[in-house]
Design brief:
The protein is α/β, with parallel strands linked by helices and 673 residues long. The protein is built from 11 helices and 37 strands. The protein has an 8-stranded parallel barrel with strand order 25-28-29-32-33-34-36-37, surrounded by 5 helices. Strands 1-3-6-5 form a 4-stranded antiparallel beta sheet, with no helix packed on it. The longest helix is centred in the last third of the chain and has 18 residues.
Length: 673
């Protein structure tokens, strides 16, 4: 008997069906009731069909005001619009049914909400609490909300009146804001009490609210003493810090005190316990076991209307940690600017001596001077050290000099026959420069560094032996600020690049400096540079290999010879006093070399920009609602940094002086081997 076998094709899935709902018109502050919907599908049982819905006007019809119900093929949708929204009365509701195969069908219907009485209603205005303020102050902006069922908030008008112009004249009341959110600010002119009336109108009807402003004798803020910074050894269980409070108008026992830690990972809220009584108070600080680092402790005293804040630095210090076992450059350094005395060299070139912002403030440890190689070396290898001699004579007594040799190569090097060059387009016009590994460039550079070290400065002695010279930071000639890609090109794309060549010139630069300046800290910029040669170096990225070799050569002993530096320190927030603090650079990003190196050598940072006077959007976005002290705290905790270069806008800012003095005192109090 013959047989036959085959495959019957499964029927294709088809979209589900959904019935229509007619347009709905309902009175304001009511509901549509349950509107019937019928759903179906050829392949999916009706009980397995899924309904969803949304609104085109969520102000009138929020998502939670649409309720789907029913079972099987008989479903319902019930809509309860937001209250008092007849002024925003148009909406479209869409309901979608979806089957088990993912196909769906939608239907939509209009929803209109009307004022049931078809009559105008009076607008609404918030009440404002009565105010008591001291003479010579104002209320600050007092917020209030206006609304209306029929009139948009932007079309509502607000007027103000005063019942006692001798205390609060009409000219002393300022209305601000638009839409529903408004403010009123009162500036009294005398002592006493005045009743202020606010009236909101929709053009036909109005509503008023009143509050009083009582002006009393001037209140003064309470006082609080500032505890000294506290550095405790690792393993300390807790410490008690005493302080005093007082107030001219209120008994000390009635003053309120609060405390906050900037670093909860070290000093959590549970580790802050206030004690004491009357004017003698204290706070007990208990760090998290096993944690080290710093926290800025903020103490606030209030009399109920005025407050005073003080701060001190609390640090848990592990003297046995490898990162604390060697000396390093320390302190706050004022960063120079391009302004200063103009000087014309023998070759006719005029340069700035960059001496306009030398600072002698007690919290400033020294001055950072950025000197271009081409500021000193003229064509053919002739030198003019005026910019060095100038700072030697002008640096205040007791301050140190930190010298940055920028990457500005003498122009004649790139035009010398046989020199390998590249085009640096960071400037306009573009500049032709020698590549960092060009032999002639290195020959001239080594001779320059030797001449700089042996230069006889005013008063006698060599520059290398000048007691006020703290540190030298070389930018890479032919390159950028140290071990870093130029801003417009990658190192790996420069003519003749190999990892070995670049490492060799870095080693030559550092050996020349450490050899000619044996008593000076040498620190070089170090970013996470990459190339295409990882496979030849055991999978190590370029920066990882450079770090491994440099640490072995310069920093394997008890006193490291070369530290690492970056010029992009920043810290900011989304708003004043709102944590978390966003610190930059990230230890897992461009600053990975510094994070990895900190147990063997020191790290150093220059601010990305000024906190009080940012000069571009990048520095503004990174420092907004932050402070220099918060930037330094971030760097100390993330990188162990004790050396900082700050712009003089921050150093000169009155608002930053106490914080900078606090950090100067802390940095210089840290134990040094």
């Amino acid at each position: 008997m013959l047989g036959w076998a085959g495959t019957v094709a499964a029927a294709a899935n088809t979209p589900p069906t959904i019935s229509k709902v007619t347009a709905q018109t309902i009175p304001m502050n009511s509901t549509t009731g349950a509107l019937k919907i019928t759903v179906g599908d050829t392949q999916t049982p009706a009980s397995n069909l899924v309904l969803s819905a949304w609104s085109t006007n969520p102000v009138l019809t929020p998502l939670g005001s649409i309720v789907l119900g029913g079972l099987g093929s008989s479903r319902t949708v019930t809509i309860t619009p937001a209250t008092n929204q007849a002024a925003l009365n148009n909406d479209t509701i869409t309901v979608t049914v979806t089957d088990a195969g993912g196909l769906s069908t939608s239907m939509s219907f209009p929803l209109n909400v009307t004022n049931a009485a078809n009559a105008n209603t009076a607008p609404v205005i918030d009440t404002i609490p009565n105010q008591v303020i001291a003479q010579g102050t104002d209320t600050g902006p007092l917020p209030f909300i206006v609304s209306d069922n029929e009139t948009l908030p932007t079309n509502l008008t607000v007027k103000v009146a005063t019942a006692n112009p001798g205390v609060v004249p009409l000219s002393g009341i300022v209305l601000s804001g638009k839409g529903s959110a408004r403010t009123v600010q009162v500036y009294p002119s005398g002592m006493g009490t005045a009743k202020i009336t606010l009236t909101v109108s929709d053009g036909k009807l109005s509503t008023s609210t009143s509050f009083t402003v009582k002006v009393t004798g001037p209140n003064t803020a309470p006082a609080i003493s500032t505890p000294d910074n506290l550095i405790v050894p690792a393993g300390t269980v807790s410490s008690v810090v005493a302080f005093t409070i007082s107030d001219a108008q209120k008994a000390a026992a009635n003053l309120g005190v609060s405390v906050k830690s900037s670093n909860p990972a070290l000093l959590p809220a549970s580790g802050l316990v206030l004690g004491g009584s009357a004017g003698n108070r204290n706070v007990t600080l208990t760090p998290v076991p096993g944690q080290t680092g710093t926290s800025t402790v903020t103490l606030t005293v209030t009399d109920g209307s005025l407050s005073t804040v003080t701060r001190f630095i609390y640090a848990v210090f592990d003297a046995a940690a490898p990162a604390n076992a060697f000396p390093r450059p320390t302190g706050i350094y004022a960063l120079d600017s391009g302004a200063g005395t103009q000087y014309t060299r023998a070759d006719g070139t005029t340069i700035s001596l960059r001496d306009a912002v030398i600072r002698a403030a007690p919290f400033v440890d020294g001055y950072t001077l950025r000197v271009g190689w081409d500021d000193i070396e003229m064509a053919g290898g002739a030198y003019d050290f005026k910019i060095i001699d100038n700072i030697v004579t002008k640096l205040p007594a007791g301050k140190k000099l930190s010298l940055i040799i920028t990457e500005n190569d003498p122009a004649d090097i790139a035009t010398t026959p046989g020199v390998t060059t590249w085009v640096d387009t960071r400037n306009t016009p573009a500049i032709t420069r020698a590549v960092p590994w060009d032999p002639y460039l290195r020959q001239r550079r080594d001779a320059f560094l030797q001449a700089l070290a042996t230069h006889i400065i005013p008063g006698g002695g060599t520059f290398a032996n000048w007691p006020q010279l703290l540190a030298i930071d070389p930018c890479m000639p032919g390159g950028f600020t140290g071990i870093r890609d130029p801003a417009n090109v990658y190192l790996r794309d420069l003519p003749g690049y190999t990892r070995a060549k670049f490492l060799a010139v870095v080693q030559d630069e550092l050996n020349t400096l450490t050899g000619n300046f044996p008593s000076t800290y040498v620190q070089i910029g170090f970013w996470n540079v990459l190339d295409r040669e990882n496979a030849s170096y055991g999978g190590l990225a370029a920066w990882e290999y450079f770090l491994q070799v440099l640490q072995s050569e310069f920093n394997s002993g008890t006193a490291p010879r070369v530290g690492f530096f970056q010029e992009n320190l920043a810290a900011g927030r989304q708003s004043w006093g709102i944590d978390p603090l966003d610190g930059r650079p990230l230890a897992s990003g461009i600053a990975a070399p510094l994070a990895e190196a900190q147990s063997q050598t020191w790290t150093a940072f220059q601010a990305l920009g000024s906190w009080v006077g940012p000069f571009d959007f990048t520095s503004l976005a990174s420092t907004l609602y932050g402070t220099p002290g918060e930037g330094m705290e971030y760097a100390y905790n993330a990188f162990g940094t004790r050396y900082f270069e700050l712009y003089t806008a921050d150093i000169d800012a009155p608002s930053d002086r106490a914080e900078l003095q606090r950090w100067h005192d802390f940095l210089n109090a840290l134990p040094v081997p």
